[in-house]
């Protein structure tokens, strides 16, 4: 991108006069209206463009600096991004929030009302997608040249409504009103092939696809904080050829047939698969994955050729991070490009490929490790199958030479699973094709190397490492919790902590300071009032801002054990009916979406809503216990709940949650965790201190042992009267009839050891209540949580990736 120069360029000033001029002129020229007749949507769109334009200028300078430096670039391949709302972030990153507020006020409009028109693109399921967004934010903040590649789903993650207590999924047409943050680039369209056959031409194999679809990119800007760098996230949308519409069919009245061809193509990016950590055996999903990979690699190669001509330096200039296995097809695709299209020899191509890729694994759940039936793969991507076989051959030859005669090992390490059906193991493909493999928390990385990927860790120990996840302090503290951010900045003497989160340590000395504690509590209370106002409008439930705000917010999954929290609520309800002083006044907030096909966990949502209805209507516990299920959890809702939370529920069965990132966001905002020794909870507890964390439950080793042994949930239920009473209350229909299925899973196999951990969990909750009764003690714990969360900054995560995997240098962008 050429950098335009000269005084004619508007939209770079940050004075009120310049801002107002641009806003009014955008309204006029972009929306064709004036302030007098503008709708709120018009004002929102014009404001967004006005802010965006200030980033465009930085983007132009960023592109120029990258072109000149010819640096090693980080390409992040991810099927999911949860970027969150952009308007407030971009106002903040351009330093125009106050100016915008004043200018709008002068025009008779409130920024807060306009900002509510901003729509979050929910192009992901949960933690993995939000992590991708936090890493992009930190990459730009660190001035590291990076591009995030993804899919521009027309429909993001479904919007969740609760109807009669049950989850109902509604389509998320996030760009319905047009997204001002997107820059479509029609002229960069790229053809992607599917199906077809392999031909041999002059001794070279070549894929002749039978079907092609166009990939049309659009990008969004990813500004760094406190720097001039603006990177991009490039999202691909599937388009049919412009003459795919069948006019003849249409004219003959066959309108459905007329658009068939268009739909076939465009369906590829129609909808995000709403499966979280479960496999989706659908042809369209595999097509999506290849679509992302093919478009992105073409673009990466194009960018490389803008600055370089010699393939031997490709891996020095390029590192491609695979965000889980969804983009693992990039390994055979790069091989195909290098060998078939650019005619490199196999060994050279393989060496380039391996040096280019790195792979992050985000799970331990065996059902979340993707595999694809060979038959489907062969039909859709015949040449890629040949390449996978060839990679596998070399790979298994290496295994044979290092561990001769170990057929069992070869079978376990193979890219192909043979039984019960031949399938391609995508995690194996990603490991074999990468020079670095990482897990996302220390425990997770260790368990990966000891269990899920143990054979690979034995084969190539040097490839394995850990990079613990992190979160953006800009979004999850400064933007989400402006009150706390202001208090912190006041005490630490500036905003330096926003890009150097370890500075929060300075708060530890204030943990016992009663005046600081008082102000800390005022902030929490005000945040709870904001949450209460929202909850009341959304659900009608009234929250007490002085009650302990106890939150279990994240995707619904049995391993995350929302049901354990619910058993606690039921027991509290019983206890409080007998003794109103049995617990501290408490608000329990649940929020999260369940995969639409995950029936068992949708039943738990229903049960929660059943319990909430009964508890909230019971005068015996009024003012003591309130339960709310807040629908449609997403990044925007998290930004509301997290600052208000006192107690953070991180209660997954140990060994199941790879890392978790909600745990970090909540602790950073001064919530105290009640949690198991799972994922990053362990590192969180190490840092905030055991005294400031309520630990309970079996550890991962013990959980595995219980599972292997003769575990009898029924006996536990029989020997614990409170637990038995809670289960009986569900069984006798107090919270709605017909929850026998939920009880059966608990009393039958209890896969996630909910009953085994029940008593320890209640004890931990009692300890939390005791601490809450002493406000000085609780507030000190809360402050210490924030103070010791510096490690969980996404800036630290990116620095770890940079030092251990990417080896990419920053490229500072000069100011104008
Ligand atoms: N569901 C893990 O389960 C982890 C995030 C980000 C997950 C979380 O524990 O914090 O990734 N895994 O690393 C996943 O999506 C495909 O696996 C998640 O978000």
From TrEMBL:
The keyword Glycosyltransferase applies. It catalyses: [(1->4)-alpha-D-glucosyl](n) + phosphate = [(1->4)-alpha-D-glucosyl](n-1) + alpha-D-glucose 1-phosphate. CDD domains: GT35_Glycogen_Phosphorylase. One of its GO terms (biological process) is glycogen catabolic process. Keywords: Carbohydrate metabolism, Glycosyltransferase, Pyridoxal phosphate, Transferase. Its cofactor is pyridoxal 5'-phosphate. The modification N6-(pyridoxal phosphate)lysine is found at residue 665. GO terms for molecular function: glycogen phosphorylase activity; pyridoxal phosphate binding. GO terms for cellular component: cytoplasm. InterPro entries: Glycg_phsphrylas, Glyco_trans_35, Pyridoxal_P_attach_site. Its EC number is 2.4.1.1. Belongs to the glycogen phosphorylase family. PANTHER family: GLYCOGEN PHOSPHORYLASE (PTHR11468), MALTODEXTRIN PHOSPHORYLASE (PTHR11468:SF25). This is Alpha-1,4 glucan phosphorylase. It comes from Krasilnikovia cinnamomea.
